[in-house]
Design a protein that fits this description.
Layout (H helix, E strand, L loop, with lengths): L9 H18 L10 H7 L2 E5 L6 E6 L28 H5 L9
Antiparallel strand pairs: 1-2
Length: 105
């Protein structure tokens, strides 16, 4: 599924995320879900594969170790320390820990 909820308003997106979760729980099928929304990836996924810019290569694979069921507003869904965010600079883990003040470091 390639960004199926991207054009939806926030309320409809949350309803569709919950429905997708119910469908997955009921069927047990693997779902490959593409999104640029890190919170959505953490909420829906058990694994998040982060791709590099062109050409798309696997940059990192992150296991999401949060219990289910998950709620979209759960406090545990804080993706910054776990998932690289390219706009934060070359080492997002250091940025998340506050070790990098300037993005040019």
């Amino acid at each position: 599924m390639d960004e199926p909820f991207g054009a939806l308003d926030a309320q409809t997106r949350e309803l569709m995320q919950e429905e997708l979760t119910r469908l997955w729980e009921r069927t047990g099928k693997t779902i490959v879900f593409v999104t640029h929304d890190i919170e959505e990836a953490v909420y829906l996924g058990d694994r998040v594969v982060v791709l590099s810019a062109r050409p798309g290569r696997i940059r990192e694979e992150v296991k999401i170790d949060l219990p289910r069921p998950r709620g979209a507003g759960d406090q545990e869904i804080d993706p910054v320390p776990r998932v690289p965010q390219p706009h934060l600079g070359p080492d997002p883990q250091r940025v998340a820990r506050g070790e990098v003040i300037s993005l040019s470091d």
